[in-house]
Amino acid sequence: PQRWRNGAGLTRELLAWPDAVDWRLRISVADIEADAPFSAFDGVERWFAVIEGAGVVLRLPEGRHMLDVHSAPLHFAGEAAPACTLIGGPTRDLNLMARRGSGQATMQRAELDLIFAPHGDLRALFVADAATLQIDGADALRLEPFTLAWTEAAHGAWRLADETTPPRAWWMGFNREVRA
Question: CA-based angle 166:167:173, to the nearest 5?
Protein backbone atom coordinates (compact mmCIF):
# COMPACT_ATOMS: atom_id res chain seq x y z
CA PRO A 1 0.00 0.00 0.00
CA GLN A 2 1.09 3.55 -0.79
CA ARG A 3 0.07 6.35 1.60
CA TRP A 4 -1.56 9.37 -0.08
CA ARG A 5 0.25 12.70 0.00
CA ASN A 6 -2.71 14.26 1.84
CA GLY A 7 -2.64 11.51 4.50
CA ALA A 8 -6.36 10.71 4.08
CA GLY A 9 -5.90 7.17 2.74
CA LEU A 10 -3.80 4.64 0.90
CA THR A 11 -3.84 2.87 -2.46
CA ARG A 12 -2.95 -0.64 -3.55
CA GLU A 13 -2.20 -0.72 -7.28
CA LEU A 14 -3.43 -4.03 -8.70
CA LEU A 15 -2.70 -3.50 -12.39
CA ALA A 16 -1.00 -0.87 -14.56
CA TRP A 17 -1.37 -1.95 -18.20
CA PRO A 18 0.56 -2.33 -20.42
CA ASP A 19 3.29 -1.19 -17.98
CA ALA A 20 3.70 0.79 -14.76
CA VAL A 21 5.38 3.82 -16.34
CA ASP A 22 3.28 4.33 -19.49
CA TRP A 23 -0.06 2.83 -18.44
CA ARG A 24 -3.23 3.12 -20.47
CA LEU A 25 -5.36 1.37 -17.85
CA ARG A 26 -4.89 1.27 -14.09
CA ILE A 27 -6.87 -0.72 -11.51
CA SER A 28 -6.44 -0.10 -7.80
CA VAL A 29 -8.09 -0.54 -4.41
CA ALA A 30 -8.06 2.47 -2.08
CA ASP A 31 -8.79 2.85 1.60
CA ILE A 32 -10.30 6.26 2.33
CA GLU A 33 -9.73 7.09 5.99
CA ALA A 34 -10.77 10.77 6.17
CA ASP A 35 -12.73 13.41 4.29
CA ALA A 36 -10.52 14.92 1.57
CA PRO A 37 -10.55 15.86 -2.12
CA PHE A 38 -9.47 13.23 -4.66
CA SER A 39 -6.22 13.83 -6.51
CA ALA A 40 -6.63 15.31 -9.99
CA PHE A 41 -5.69 13.07 -12.93
CA ASP A 42 -5.68 15.26 -16.03
CA GLY A 43 -6.54 13.42 -19.24
CA VAL A 44 -7.89 10.36 -17.42
CA GLU A 45 -11.37 8.84 -17.30
CA ARG A 46 -12.19 7.33 -13.88
CA TRP A 47 -14.64 4.79 -12.49
CA PHE A 48 -15.18 4.49 -8.73
CA ALA A 49 -17.10 1.89 -6.69
CA VAL A 50 -17.45 1.47 -2.91
CA ILE A 51 -16.64 -2.13 -1.97
CA GLU A 52 -16.67 -1.87 1.87
CA GLY A 53 -17.93 0.62 4.42
CA ALA A 54 -21.00 2.82 4.72
CA GLY A 55 -20.17 4.90 1.64
CA VAL A 56 -19.10 8.32 0.45
CA VAL A 57 -20.51 11.53 -0.96
CA LEU A 58 -18.57 12.85 -3.95
CA ARG A 59 -19.09 16.44 -5.07
CA LEU A 60 -18.43 16.88 -8.78
CA PRO A 61 -19.11 19.91 -11.00
CA GLU A 62 -22.36 18.30 -12.24
CA GLY A 63 -23.62 17.56 -8.73
CA ARG A 64 -23.46 15.50 -5.57
CA HIS A 65 -23.27 11.68 -5.73
CA MET A 66 -23.91 9.42 -2.73
CA LEU A 67 -22.34 5.98 -3.25
CA ASP A 68 -22.42 2.83 -1.13
CA VAL A 69 -21.68 -0.87 -1.66
CA HIS A 70 -24.92 -1.28 -3.64
CA SER A 71 -24.29 1.61 -6.06
CA ALA A 72 -23.25 1.22 -9.67
CA PRO A 73 -19.72 2.46 -10.39
CA LEU A 74 -19.52 6.21 -10.94
CA HIS A 75 -17.74 7.43 -14.09
CA PHE A 76 -16.19 10.92 -14.09
CA ALA A 77 -13.34 12.95 -15.58
CA GLY A 78 -10.10 12.60 -13.64
CA GLU A 79 -9.41 16.32 -13.63
CA ALA A 80 -12.66 16.90 -11.71
CA ALA A 81 -10.96 15.80 -8.42
CA PRO A 82 -14.20 15.61 -6.41
CA ALA A 83 -14.40 16.47 -2.74
CA CYS A 84 -15.08 13.27 -0.80
CA THR A 85 -17.02 13.02 2.47
CA LEU A 86 -17.23 9.71 4.30
CA ILE A 87 -20.61 8.42 5.48
CA GLY A 88 -20.12 6.69 8.82
CA GLY A 89 -16.40 5.95 8.69
CA PRO A 90 -13.65 4.63 6.41
CA THR A 91 -14.35 2.89 3.10
CA ARG A 92 -12.52 0.58 0.74
CA ASP A 93 -13.02 1.41 -2.92
CA LEU A 94 -12.29 0.03 -6.38
CA ASN A 95 -10.84 2.41 -8.96
CA LEU A 96 -10.43 2.06 -12.71
CA MET A 97 -8.55 4.74 -14.63
CA ALA A 98 -8.04 4.93 -18.41
CA ARG A 99 -5.97 7.52 -20.23
CA ARG A 100 -8.25 9.55 -22.46
CA GLY A 101 -7.60 8.92 -26.15
CA SER A 102 -5.88 5.56 -25.61
CA GLY A 103 -9.02 3.43 -25.73
CA GLN A 104 -12.43 2.70 -24.28
CA ALA A 105 -12.73 1.32 -20.74
CA THR A 106 -15.78 -0.06 -18.94
CA MET A 107 -16.64 -1.02 -15.38
CA GLN A 108 -19.88 -2.59 -14.17
CA ARG A 109 -21.24 -4.69 -11.32
CA ALA A 110 -20.93 -8.42 -12.03
CA GLU A 111 -24.09 -10.44 -11.58
CA LEU A 112 -24.48 -14.19 -11.18
CA ASP A 113 -24.94 -16.22 -14.37
CA LEU A 114 -24.77 -13.20 -16.71
CA ILE A 115 -22.23 -13.52 -19.51
CA PHE A 116 -19.36 -11.00 -19.76
CA ALA A 117 -17.84 -11.23 -23.24
CA PRO A 118 -16.55 -7.84 -24.40
CA HIS A 119 -14.31 -7.63 -27.42
CA GLY A 120 -11.11 -5.87 -26.57
CA ASP A 121 -7.51 -5.92 -25.47
CA LEU A 122 -8.05 -6.63 -21.77
CA ARG A 123 -10.77 -7.97 -19.51
CA ALA A 124 -10.80 -8.25 -15.74
CA LEU A 125 -12.90 -9.33 -12.79
CA PHE A 126 -12.36 -7.99 -9.27
CA VAL A 127 -14.06 -9.85 -6.42
CA ALA A 128 -14.44 -8.55 -2.87
CA ASP A 129 -15.99 -11.90 -1.86
CA ALA A 130 -14.88 -15.42 -2.80
CA ALA A 131 -16.34 -16.39 -6.17
CA THR A 132 -16.05 -18.90 -8.99
CA LEU A 133 -15.20 -17.57 -12.45
CA GLN A 134 -16.33 -19.87 -15.24
CA ILE A 135 -14.54 -19.39 -18.54
CA ASP A 136 -16.13 -20.48 -21.84
CA GLY A 137 -18.60 -22.70 -19.99
CA ALA A 138 -15.93 -25.20 -18.93
CA ASP A 139 -12.90 -23.98 -17.03
CA ALA A 140 -13.58 -22.71 -13.51
CA LEU A 141 -11.28 -20.62 -11.37
CA ARG A 142 -11.97 -20.18 -7.65
CA LEU A 143 -11.11 -16.61 -6.64
CA GLU A 144 -10.36 -15.66 -3.04
CA PRO A 145 -11.71 -12.37 -1.62
CA PHE A 146 -9.98 -9.24 -2.93
CA THR A 147 -8.62 -10.91 -6.06
CA LEU A 148 -8.21 -9.42 -9.53
CA ALA A 149 -8.36 -11.93 -12.40
CA TRP A 150 -7.40 -10.49 -15.78
CA THR A 151 -6.23 -11.46 -19.23
CA GLU A 152 -5.02 -9.84 -22.41
CA ALA A 153 -6.54 -12.76 -24.33
CA ALA A 154 -9.96 -11.13 -24.10
CA HIS A 155 -12.06 -13.64 -25.98
CA GLY A 156 -14.73 -16.11 -24.95
CA ALA A 157 -17.42 -15.87 -22.30
CA TRP A 158 -16.86 -15.28 -18.58
CA ARG A 159 -19.51 -15.63 -15.89
CA LEU A 160 -19.78 -15.92 -12.13
CA ALA A 161 -21.20 -19.33 -11.24
CA ASP A 162 -21.99 -21.75 -8.43
CA GLU A 163 -22.55 -19.12 -5.74
CA THR A 164 -25.32 -19.27 -3.15
CA THR A 165 -25.11 -15.53 -2.50
CA PRO A 166 -24.24 -12.92 -5.12
CA PRO A 167 -20.64 -11.83 -4.48
CA ARG A 168 -19.50 -8.22 -4.51
CA ALA A 169 -17.76 -8.24 -7.89
CA TRP A 170 -17.05 -5.92 -10.85
CA TRP A 171 -16.31 -6.57 -14.54
CA MET A 172 -13.81 -4.30 -16.29
CA GLY A 173 -12.76 -4.15 -19.92
CA PHE A 174 -10.51 -2.12 -22.18
CA ASN A 175 -10.39 -1.81 -25.96
CA ARG A 176 -7.73 0.30 -27.67
CA GLU A 177 -9.10 2.77 -30.15
CA VAL A 178 -8.37 2.05 -33.79
CA ARG A 179 -6.16 4.78 -35.18
CA ALA A 180 -6.45 5.83 -38.84
Answer: 110
Q: What Rg do the C-alpha atoms of the chain give, in angstroms?
A: 16
Instruction: Report the distance separating Cα 33 and Cα 8, nearest Å.
Output: 5
SS3 content of the chain, % helix, strand, coil (to 5): 0, 55, 45
Q: Which of 85, 65, 88, 89 is nearest to 75 (CA)?
A: 65
d(CA 22, CA 28): 16
* Chain mean position to CA 174: 12
Note the pLDDT tens digit of each residue in 108-119: 999 887 889 887
Q: Determine whether 136 is exposed, middle or buried from the number of CB atoms within 10 Å of its CB (0-12, 13-18, 19+).
A: exposed
Entry pTM: 0.92
